[in-house]
Known about the structure:
By secondary structure, the protein is an alpha/beta fold. It has five domains: 4-128, PriA, 3(prime) DNA-binding domain (GIY-YIG endonuclease); 134-196, Arc Repressor Mutant, subunit A (Orthogonal Bundle); 216-399, Rossmann fold (3-Layer(aba) Sandwich), CATH 3.40.50.300; 405-450 and 509-645, Rossmann fold; 655-748, Alpha-Beta Plaits (2-Layer Sandwich). Strands 14-15-13-16-17-12-18 form a seven-stranded parallel beta sheet, sandwiched between helices. Strands 5-2-1-4-3-6 form a six-stranded mixed beta sheet. A six-stranded parallel beta sheet has the order 19-29-28-20-27-26, sandwiched between helices. Helix 9 links the parallel strand 14 and strand 15. Helix 1 packs across helix 2 and helix 17 (590-602) runs parallel beside helix 18. It is globular and about 90 Å long.
Amino acid sequence: xxxxxxxxxxxxxxIHFDKLYSYCIPPRLVGRVWPGSxxxxxxxxxxxxxxxxxxxxxxxxxxxDAQKLKTLYDATPAEARLTPDLLELVHFLKERTFCTWFxxxxxxxxxxxxxxxxxxxxxxVMQSRLSRSTERLYTLAGExxxxxxxxxxxxxxMEALSTGPKTAxxxxxxxxxxATLDTLCKKGVITAAEQDKSLDLFADIxxxxxxxxxxxxxxxxxxxxxxxxxxxxxxxxLLHGVTGSGKTVVFLKLIERTLELSRRALVLVPEISxxxxxxxxxxxxxxxxxxxxxxxxxNTERLLQWRMIQQGNADIVVGTRSAVFSPLQNLGLIIVxxxxxxxxxxxxxxxxxxxxxxxxRAVMENALLLFASATPLTETYHAAQSGxxxxxxxxxxxxGCPLPSVDFIDMRAELTAGNPxxxxxxxxxxxxxxxxxxxxxxxxxxxxxxxxxxxxxDCGHVLKCPNCSVPLVYHKPQQALMCHHCGHTVHPLxxxxxxxxxxxxxSGFGTQRVEEELAELLPNARILRMDQDSTGKxxxxxxxxxxxxxxxxxxxxxxxxxxxxxxxxKVTLVGVLGxxxxxxxxxxxxxxxVFSLVTQVIGRGGRAALPGRALIQTAVPDHPILQLAxxxxxxxxxxxxxxxxxFGLYPPFCAFCVIGFVGAQEGAVFLAAQxxxxxxxxxxxxxxxLPLRILGPAPMNITMLNGKFRYKLTLKCRNDAAFxxxxxxxxxxxAKEKLPQKASVxxxxxxxxxx
Length: 755
């Protein structure tokens, strides 16, 4: 037997020494190690066991000195191997996002399906990070003998199993003990086997398929998309419909046809808060062959759902960003709902955009990729206008409901009139009117906490996080100051200035403060606050939204998680508070974000028989972006935005890449960033045909985070293979000068200007 060599990438590597290492495959592991296998390898001078992923397996060339190579310690079972399509996604992530091989592996498979190094009888072995959750399944194997005479419990067990196999839990609930089952197993009447625990996360949702009735406009949209679904070639399209136009019904019809074609569907949503409504629609329409992937599941639940998908027992997968890696075979349809949301972009390595992974998968699987939004990304709409995507539009609300009427409330006039509150007089009056009419309201405020800044009245000192260059936020329930970035907490609440002893004044407002104001203004109102602080418990999103749907609350107050995708027939009033801070935010997407957020939240009202209305509180009521959002005029907004992007050279007219530098000493970080820029410029000068602009270095918006200083270079470039090769060459040169010891490097192609 010829010797086999595995080329493997190890865990816990930095981007600068993330390369392939050669290892001999011992005879006992031959036939168990393939590309995609997870293995345990000796690494470094001390041969410390380290996890690795195999990327190729080769025969040892004749004459090669294999004795110099180290030998693998252990390998995972075949079912834990990355399938060829998942391995292709690992290669794609590595090439496009500048992550390490193992960072890509960890993105593609959930924590519970990963392995770690352990010791068994003094030998290094691999151990699953999560013990497989199994349960005992009993199956009828024969007839019960007449002698000795069976007891009533044995007869009950036989009767229960006569209709099919049952789990130990199901039989226990029927009053049949383990002792009775063990006795029957000894007699050979029943058999017992271990299987993965079944996990029906949606057992309470009845399977109640209703005929999918499309309006003429929806039918036209469906008919336009159908040929691209049926021809077994990769296609991409944008479904652009006003809020409340019934895009979901078009999704359901497309999924129905996908299943008829014996193919599978993947549905991505941007927020966990949107999964319950989507799951309810899908489960009631298509039944239990539905799986979920998102971060609110615990590790066991996520693993069991992932195994269900991997074993081919799910026809539809719904989830947030990470669900794009679901191991679905024979994928025919990928839907990216509310495609404009920034949550589709990962903020840690690998820094991928789910849009790009979805495009890659659609090509790999010859599937239809459907983006959908009332406010699509400027780049997506430009691609549709340019003919790169098929553009399908829905211009009317489903059922003929009119769009909500929109009014502005000038908060400068409120202050002049003597109202210091964050809730204007008119908004309070209209909220009361909704209460009197038995109708519901949604209020958007994209700031959590109680007060957002603490400042000394004497010397002007602002209370900031010692680890991050940001003000601490006052959270009233905890009577503490908290950092929303690193979690640093100051308790008890400071009253006096640490610099001069003067009095600290707290100002600004968040959801907790507005909730308190509403309780004072509307003592009879039942108020539900949804933000990161109130949705920490398991299934909190689903529970809260179900309560609001049952009209157990009158007012839903929340951050942007309440702004999109939600559909409540009793909601007739929408209020927007504190939007000005976003309007004047940094980043070239600031106006796009505000237009989308305001348009989306306005669209939550008047979605059924009752007409809707919206009130926007602002100090700049004449601002053109707010006016366009109020008119729900996406085309006019797009014309303004695309002109700005072209003039300023922003996407889609270039790629936008931010190179971040992070380290303990600010001066060293700045110099490292400056040197990287020089190294990049030197190499770019040798490639004059490569378009590139280098801006910076400059401090990031939050210069210090978790005790580390942060600087950036901003590159306007063309994200193609030639530019990525140039960037890799520069990273290698940076490493050769030992600069990573001064500042580690982060590469992000999805940033709007900061990390």
